[in-house]
Amino acid sequence: xxxxxxxxxxxxxxxxxxxxxxxxxxxxxxxxxxxxxxxxxxxxxxxxxxxxxxxxxxxxxxxxxxxxxxxxxxxxxxxxxxxxxxxxxxxxxxxxxxxxxxxxxxxxxxxxxxxxxxxxxxxxxxxxxxxxxxxxxxxxxxxxxxxxxxxxxxxxxxxxxxxxxxxxxxxxxxxxxxxxxxxxxxxxxxxxxxxxxxxxxxxxxxxxxxxxxxxxxxxxxxxxxxxxxxxxxxxxxxxxxxxxxxxxxxxxxxxxxxxxxxxxxxxxxxxxxxxxxxxxxxxxxxxxxxxxxxxxxxxxxxxxxxxxxxxxxxxxxxxxxxxxxxxxxxxxxx
Length: 334
Description:
Layout: E1 2-6, H1 10-21, E2 26-31, H2 35-45, E3 49-50, H3 53-59, E4 64-67, H4 74-83, E5 87-91, H5 98-111, E6 115-118, H6 125-135, E7 142-151, H7 164-167, H8 169-186, E8 189-198, E9 203-211, E10 216-223, E11 230-237, E12 241-245, H9 259-263, H10 278-292, H11 300-319, E13 323-324, E14 332-333
Parallel strand pairs: 1-2, 1-4, 2-3, 4-5, 5-6, 7-10
Antiparallel strand pairs: 7-11, 8-9, 8-13, 9-10, 11-12, 13-14
Helix pairs in contact: 1-10, 4-5, 5-11, 8-11
């Protein structure tokens, strides 16, 4: 399987590095408008650097391409890759609007290529284990869940995150991980209520999801958190509680003055104590789905539903009112 990566920033580096480790996969090129960035990554991974998407697609042998670009560019490059008959692995979120996401999905279907969206939390061993325990009925009938995800502000590393029109802030770019997981665990969402406070260096959100089953999930997300990146989840049912905290999986904890400030100089990537990083497992899974024509653990339609919940949360935060789903035909206020 010959693959290429578009975008050589943090996520492009993760994708490229994991592709270089996957058996039966050849990384045939990386592309970025920033020539130095592209050359550095290509040199590190012993592949070819390209500075134009069109040049790379014309010159390199490619079966599938990873789109690791800012969110507002996803649609353009997914559709360009589909036009050339290439399977697409695109970072989350799928797009900024439901219309764009739906067009991307239908366009890839029309062109006969697979579209995968990188909702990587489903591939974290600790989250996968939490889902297995929930499915086993260990906690009983679903009740209330609490999910938390905090870290430094990525806008200190990449300026496009500071442009709300391009990133849609912490709810779209970071909390969407927990939104997707909560929906995977509890099913379809009926109503959303959200609070969001943004400043130059802070973006904090609280979002409550009410599910069709009657279960409730409270989600907390924070860009600009002064400590280390961390995640936590708690699912309470009628028979028990299942908890997960990223800090508990660290065999050694070292607190060092100035560490939080230093980490803010780059976009943070969630870590896991697993043998390979979760992105490796995610990309391995997507490649297998292409090879064997299998349905993925997370579908493009799952990504569309997560986006719909995000947009409902953003509308709720704007108006101060709960928002009912689905959003088709306009936004209905509860």
